Every structure is written in C-alpha cells, then in structure tokens.
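Recap for those who missed Tuesday's class. We walked through two folding examples back to back. For each one, the amino acid string is listed first and its predicted structure tokens come directly after. Nothing is annotated here on purpose, so try labeling regions yourself before you check the end of the notes.
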Amino acid sequence: MNQLENQAQLDTLKQEREAVLILFGGANCGVCQTIKPQIDNKFSVKFSELEMVYIDCEQLQEVCAQHGVFSLPVVQVFFMGQKFIEKVRGFSLLELEQEIEKTYVKMKR
C-alpha cells in the first residue's frame, strides 16, 4: 500500500486507475495501523486491479478535510473515478470486502 503525499497524486490515481481504495489514517491511530496491513495483505491478492493507497491525515489534514474525513479510520473506494463505498470508524473488514467484491465483479465484466 503506497502512501500518498498530496492531492495531485490522488487526483491522478482516480483518473488513471479503474479501482482505487484509499485508507485515511494516522500514525497515532492504533486501529488505523492495525487494519492497514490486513487490508493490504487480504485485498491485494483478491482484488489485483484495486490500487490501494494510504493517506496520513496527521500530515495531510487539508487533503483529508477535502474528502470529508474528520475521524479515523476511513476507507473510501472509487470505481472509474466515482466514490462507491465509504466506511467510517467502526466497520467490519469482511463487510468491506463483500461490498468491494460486488462492485469489482460487475466492473470486471
């Protein structure tokens, strides 16, 4: 999972890639640091075309605010530049996986 440094990188990714998962987190967020490798390990195998990136909201507060992220963690999933899924704070990785799978399979057809 690559860490983004600015809004321009994120805009480019959303334009160039069909599927993008963004994890908004922070270095001091224990839940964020726990789910980051879990998402990366599990989803990178199952959804090979899903580009996964991490944004540290402690460093990029302006980018997080532009995306409506005011609590952590937040996962947003974009397909063809449009946000399809958003999970905030307490969410199940299994539920997230199932939601991604529904849209991902339709996209692959």
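Example two. Treat it independently of the first, because the proteins are unrelated.
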Amino acid sequence: MQANVEYWFRLFYECLRGACYGSTGGLPALLAHIWLWIIVIGYALSVIGLFVIIYVVMRLFELRERERIHYSTVIQPPEVTGGINPRWKHISALIDGETASQWREAIIEADIMLDDLLSRQGYIGDGVGEKLKSIESAELHSLHEAWDAHKVRNQIAHEGSAFDLQEALARRTIAHYENVFRELKAI
C-alpha cells in the first residue's frame, strides 16, 4: 500500500479554504472572527487600564497632599506647650516604684532622654559621655550633676543586676537628671 501525499495536502488545502466539514467560511473566516474578538477585548482592557491609572494617580496626589500637611505640622515639645513631658512622667513613675529593677530602668531612661536633649541642643558625640565632654561648664551649670548621673548609669549598664542600687542613690541620680532637664527646659 502506497501513501498518496498529494491527496493529503489537497485535503488540507481545501480544508483551509473552507471545504472541511461542510463549512462555508473556512479557517480564514474563523481566524478573522477570533481576531475581531481579540481586538474588542484588547480595547476594553485598555480603557479599563486607563481608568485604573487615572484613579491611582489621583489617589497618589491625595496621599502626597496628606503627607505634606502631616509633615509640615510642627509638633511643639511639652516645655513649649506647658504640659509635662511624657517621658519624664514615665521616669518619675519608675523611680517611685518598689524594686531596684524599676529604679535601674528609670536611670537608663533618663540617660536616654538626656542623650536626646543634648542632640537637640546641637552637641555632637557618639553617646552621652562624648556629648558631655564637649560642653563647657559655663554653658551648662548642672554639668557636674549630669556627669554624676551618667556615671551611675554606666555602672548599671556595665554591671547590670550585680550593681547594688540603693534607693537613696537612685533618687539622688534622678534628682541630678531632673536638675539638668530643668536647666535645659525639658521639664
């Protein structure tokens, strides 16, 4: 049995021309019809995409306007508004606590607050010690108290719970921080 290749090519050609299965339009008509739907769907998706882009850009401009308003609002520190500094309130609550761990935390928090205050005042250094070294005693009258308080904080930081912190020392240290904060008008 010999295969007639020309016969099969002729059937394929006629099928492409529309003689397959009794269809009158053929494959080119079907492809044209499918292509028309692809174009219609593409235009519809393009219009939807355009509306999405416009919506997103409008929301982005609204967000930027809200950010501009939010970040241009100047927040007054408590000393300007007349309120009590919430950080100092927290430190006072800790020093009034019953345990040495609360007193330690109060001293460490006060030292962090001092570091922030000195940074806001424009003093430069890696920590409180370096910032205190750059201050002249004429600039800060309570400089000696700041050093004494910072030394106690360093002992707490280096020795941890092994450092025997008595209530009198803790209260005296917080009193030193309080004098420095009052001079810097932070509380």
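Answers for example two:
The chain has two domains: 5-72, 79-183.
The domain at 79-183 is CATH 1.20.120 (Four Helix Bundle (Hemerythrin (Met), subunit A)).
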